[in-house]
Design a protein that fits this description.
mainly alpha
């Protein structure tokens, strides 16, 4: 799909062109990337939040496993001493 913009500030366009040049891409590629990023930002934020929640839950489960392993090791040690 094509988008046409009119009456843009020439200074803003110049700065945008400089940003594109620094990235070695065209103005069109940079505009496309910016528009798509803004369009999908909410969904990406939600995915990031879900991922962080999954990671936090996994950390809790791993901590519980470590505690269980430590208790098991202590029990084995106690049994071997007897």
């Amino acid at each position: 799909m094509d988008i046409f913009l009119r009456n843009l500030d020439p200074i803003a366009i110049k700065k945008f062109d400089e940003m594109a040049k620094k990235r070695s891409i065209s103005r069109q590629e940079l505009l496309k990337a910016v528009i798509e990023k803004v369009a999908y930002e909410k969904e990406q934020d939600e995915k990031d939040m879900r991922l962080e929640m999954i990671i936090s839950k996994n950390i809790l489960v791993m901590e519980e496993m470590i505690n269980t392993i430590n208790r098991f090791e202590n029990l084995l040690s106690d049994l071997m001493e007897e």
